[in-house]
Amino acid sequence: MKNTFYICPVCGFKGLKEMPYDKQGSPSYEICHCCGFEFGLDDKASMDQFRENWIKKGAPWFTPKLKPEDWNLQKQLENLLP
After folding, report:
1. Global pTM?
2. How far apart are CA 82 and CA 76, in angstroms?
3. Torsion angles phi and psi, residue 34, rounded to 5
4. What is the mean pLDDT of residues 54-67?
């Protein structure tokens, strides 16, 4: 069985184990290992503000031990482009 990972709509991290929101809009309550955002305690405006604040703080990893050695913030944020 293939592992499927989902993209965090806040930081672009492709490592969520569940979809942030299902088709009915119910949140997963998963916490992103990269930015630390918890789905279900938010709205669209808070996601944008959270991203902005996270980047201003230097984009620190919520779970640093999972940060790839070759991590690149700009490349990860490209995952958010349509």
Report:
1. 0.89
2. 13
3. -85, -65
4. 97
